[in-house]
Amino acid sequence: MKYLMSIIVFLLMTTPAMAVDQQELTFMREFFNGIQQRSFDTNREYCGFVGVDEDGYLITTEPTKGEPDACYAKDAPADFDYFASYHTHGAFSEDADSELPSSDDLIADIAEGIDGFVATPGGRVWFNDSQKKTATLVCENCVMRDPNFNGDLLDPTEKFYTVETLKQRDNDQ
Ligand SMILES: [Zn+2]
Question: Which pTM was predicted?
Answer without folding.
Answer: 0.88
